[in-house]
Structure formats: structure tokens, C-alpha cells
Amino acid sequence: MTRTTDTSTFSPIACDDGFDPIEDRLRANIRGTIEAIFNKELDSFLGRRRHVRETEADLN
Is this structure's pTM higher than 0.70? Predict the structure, then answer.
């Protein structure tokens, strides 16, 4: 096997440099949604709001 195959994907709306603004925006939105859900679940699991520390008076 000496033949090389191209495994890159083709995007009909991508710019010449391969940048696709729609895909980039979609990825950013999905990442933000996943991070927000993760942080909400983590805060719920820890039983406290984010960035809130308990003081000794709260523990008594």
C-alpha cells in the first residue's frame, strides 16, 4: 500500500485556510453549555453555592 488517502473533512463553507465560523461558534456554544451544566451539577453535589465559603460560625 503506497497510496495515501486524505482523511480531512470537506466543508463547503469553510474559508481557504480551513476555518469554518459556523462550526467554531457551534463548538463554543456547546462547550459553554456543557461547562455550565457540569458546574451546576458539581455545586449541587458539593451542597453549596459556587464561591461561597463556610465560616466557623456557620458550622456551629
Answer: no
Q: Could you report the per-residue pLDDT of 1-25, keeping only the tens digit for each?
A: 577 666 666 555 556 667 789 999 9
A 10 A CB-CB count for 20 gives: 15
pLDDT at site 25: 95
Contact 11, 23 (CB under 8 A): yes
Contact residues for 11 (Cβ-Cβ < 8 A; gap 6+) = 18, 20, 23
For the chain, how are helix, strand and coil distributed in percent, rounded to 5? 50, 0, 50
| Dihedral, CA of residue 29, residue 16, residue 8 and residue 3, to nearest 10 | 180
Nine-digit cell at 25?
461558534
What are the residue boundaries of the structural domains of the chain, listed by start? 20-44
